[in-house]
Amino acid sequence: MKTEFAIDVRNLVKRFGDKVAVNGVSIQMPYGQVWGFLGPNGSGKTTTIRMICGLLNTTEGEGTCLGFDIAKDSRDIKIRTGYMTQRFSFWGDLTIRENLEFVARLYQLPKMKAKVDETLENLGLSHRQHQVADALSGGWKQRLALAAVTMHKPELLLLDEPTAGVDPQARRDFWDEIHRLSSNGMTVLVSTHYMDEAERCDRIAYLANGVMVTKGTVGDIIDKSGLITFTAEGDQIREFATHLKDEPGIEHVAYFGSALHVSGMNREHLEAALKAKARDGVTWKEVRPSLEDSFIALMKSSGADTRAHQ
Amino acid sequence: MSLSGSVSRIWAVWLKELIQMRRDRLTFGMMLGIPIIQLILFGYAINSDPKHLPTAVYLGEQTPIVRSILQGLENSGYYDIVVQTSDPTEGQSLLSSGKVAFVISIPAGFTERLVRGDRPQILIEADASDPAASSNAVGRARAIIGGSLKRELSGTLGYLAPTPEPYDLVIHAEYNPEGITQYNIVPGLLGVILTMTLVMITSIAMTRESERGTMENLLAMPARPLEVMIGKITPYVMVGAVQTSVILLAARILFHVPFEGEFWLLLVGVAVFVVANLALGFTFSTIAKTQMQAMQLTFFFFLPSMLLSGFMFPFRGMPDWAQNVGSILPLTHFLRLVRGVMLKGGAFSDVQAPIFAMGTFAIVVSMIAMLRYRRTLD
Ligand SMILES: Nc1ncnc2c1ncn2[C@@H]1O[C@H](COP(=O)(O)OP(=O)(O)O)[C@@H](O)[C@H]1O
Ligand SMILES: [Mg+2]
Fold first, then answer.
1. At residue A48, what are phi and psi to the nearest 5 degrees?
2. Which of A262, A297, B229, B277 could pair with B198 in a Cys bridge, judged by C-beta atoms 3.0 to 4.6 Å apart?
3. Which residue has the higher pLDDT, A154 or B261?
4. Is residue B147 domain-shared with residue B196, that is, in the same domain?
């Protein structure tokens, strides 16, 4: 039943009442890759992931996941997929060990006890295995959830904002784990808001207002954005930035550390604007736009959320 | 679909539910506390004045005087003569199966001996396992029969009419001769308490998963609806068993309720009844969106169960529509069963109808639960 793509869905639409949450999303994702799923809050990432793994019926559209029809074979998909929900959804009144044992039994893992012991060992939670899951901090909860949804060695891993609210070190550990799983052959689709995480993905799909606005590698997305970016360095940059914001020809102004990025779509207009605002002690230098510059531009150009009226 | 897979998944859900039940101290305490409190609160009786009680008559002869007595009994409104028989043993079996509430026997030669002034006997055997139901009718019997005879005996037989009565009315209260109301109430309480606690607890089985946000995880894993249902309700069968033991012990120790029948038969009945209630609670939890709604559904069900099952008011005293509603409720059938076994010492053949009715109820509501079970988050 091996198909070309791990996820192959076309024109997925999901309406809740008259609200259109997802509006014609198509994804063709090959096996073995790690894809980042980006987009502002409410853009439809969670809803799309849920439709892919059979947790929500689609309003329109169709497709397969691991070769199984997302409308009819949701059970086959569930057996072969690990889905980590956006909100921690394991049982807080069960201990860490009991949660893992529950999952192991549901998936009928052989040598259940040894498997759970091994998972706890890898997690570094052996000494806390008898604490209830609610006692764990956010970062540990996410690691427990990841361990639980990968215990049955799924072919496809769907992670919905797994690192939201997790400290930087824990985020790095988490991503090391994702890459380790991927190198063992797992296909991973992960939604995130973090640019550094997006840059670790093979491909990025960007959703806005329920529509797939762009997709591709980091380089593709930056090139496709058609953005021109200058960076300014010098004194009192912060005060200076306020004068640039509403200038015609300037698409957006953003900080990266102490550097100011000023971007526009049209070179002539942008350079004219910068010349008009020239100032002593500030030097301009053209740079390659960053991924974040591209996303800020995308978010602006996709405009306000009008889905309720469609 | 492999059976071992199903068993493994049921086992997983079962263990999870058992652990969660044990950790939820408040609910766990309530499951044991409620029976004891209710038992003490309800240990005292409720009465009423039901009419139109089904009655069998055994007639040893057919004479105008006998017919007049029967007419008088029917006109009183208390007795509905549903069976007339000339077989002296038939009345007993009708009484023990609960088809009639009274058997009235008028022996052969009654009229002749009455005329001779021999004071012949009329026997009324009453099903007193529900004394509230039978006591008023029995109390009126003497006046009703006396009134009928007075009219019959006014002419040439007038000399027989004055005091004392020219006949001897013998009343046998069967199954609960002293008419002690607790004997009736306490076994009934077993049913009421099981209904309330078990429906309530399982009614939050799925809504709790939704409200805590764990539903999404449960749905994302490969457990089938029926597996989840069985896994979730069976831990509570054990709770029902503990409650049953507590109440039966209290019935014995506090209220000295006799136990006439077979213990295993009662256990079979209790088991079917417990499963019926748990299945209903689970069905509620597939209908309700929140735990609050689940509770409201439980009370919406619990009230008619209390009022229309024959627990509060004698079943036969209720209007037809109420009896029809009552016949759907498992508690109605459970009361028949538990009274039949504990007080009447009934055999399986006497109580198979209520067991069958409760079993049917369990199967029907389970089917509704499976239809209603959410397979997606829609
Ligand atoms: N069950 C639901 N009922 C109604 N609206 C919903 C439901 N789930 C999501 N939505 C709406 O659909 C849109 C997309 O939501 P979501 O997929 O959660 O976005 P994201 O995960 O990208 O933040 C949001 O506007 C959200 O309010
Ligand atoms: Mg989301």
1. -65, -45
2. B277
3. A154
4. no
Say if strands A60-65 and A68-69 run parallel, antiparallel, or are unpaired: antiparallel
Secondary structure E strands in chain B: 53-59, 79-85, 102-106, 121-127, 168-174
Position A294 in a domain:
no
Is residue B49 predicted with pLDDT exceeding 60?
Answer: no
The 10 Å Cβ neighbour count of residue A292 is: 15
| Residue A161 CA, ligand 2 centroid: distance in Å | 7
Cα gap B230→B9, rounded to integer Å: 10
Range of the domain at A143: 5-221
Confidence of residue A97 (pLDDT cuts 50, 70, 90): very high
Chain A hits for B24, CB-CB cut-off 8 Å, are: 93
Average predicted confidence (pLDDT) for chain A: 90
Average pLDDT over residues B19-45: 78
Give the model's pLDDT for residue B17. 94
pLDDT at residue B38 is higher than 90: no
pLDDT tens digits for B78-135?
888 888 888 878 888 888 888 888 888 888 888 888 888 888 888 888 887 777 677 7
Distance CA A37, CA A161 (A): 9
Q: Is the CB of B23 inside 8 Å of chain A's CB atoms?
A: yes
Q: What is the pLDDT of residues A38-59, one digit of tens each?
A: 999 999 999 999 999 999 999 9
Determine phi and psi for B303, rounding to 5 degrees: -60, -55
Do A120 and A252 fall within a single domain?
A: no
Task: Pick the atom of ligand 1 nearest to A40's CA.
Answer: 22
Q: How far apart are CA B366 and CA B282, in angstroms?
A: 8
Distance A187 CA to ligand 1 centre (A): 25
How remote is the CA of residue B240 from the centroid of ligand 2, in Å?
A: 42
CA-to-CA dists, residue B161 to A138, B64, B141, B227, angstroms:
95, 16, 17, 74
Mutation target to probe the A interface, by most A beta carbons within 10 A, among B10, B16, B208, B224 is: B16
CA of A160, closest atom in ligand 1: 21
As for how many domains chain B has, the answer is 2
For B273-309, write each residue's pLDDT tens digit: 999 999 999 999 999 999 999 999 999 999 999 899 9
Would you say residue A52 lies in a domain?
A: yes
CB of A44 sitting under 6 A from ligand 1: yes
B139: CB partners within 8 A, 6+ apart: none
User: What is the pLDDT confidence band of residue B47, given thresholds at 50, 70 and 90?
Assistant: very low
- B67 is in which domain, residue-wise? 53-174
β A252-256/A228-234 pair status:
unpaired
Rounded distance from Cα A215 to ligand 2 centre (Å) = 18
Residue B44 has pLDDT above 60, yes or no: no
Averaged over B28-40, what is the pLDDT?
A: 78
Pairs of residues, one from chain A and one from chain B, whose beta carbons lie less than 8 Å apart:
76
**Same domain as B190, residue B168:** no
**Partners of residue B1 in chain A, C-beta under 8 Å:** none
Nearest beta carbon to residue A106 from set B214, B221, B376: B221
A210 φ/ψ sector (left φ>0, alpha ψ -120 to 50, else beta): left
Question: Same structural domain for residues B111 and B249?
Answer: no
Are residue A111 and residue A166 in the same domain, yes or no? yes
Can you give A167-226 as a three-state secondary structure string?
A: CHHHHHHHHHHHHHHHHCCCEEEEECCCHHHHCCCCEEEEEECCEEEEEECHHHHHHHHC
- Give yes or no for residue A108 CB within 6 A of ligand 1: no
Least confident among A41-45, B170-174, B256-260, B354-358: B170-174
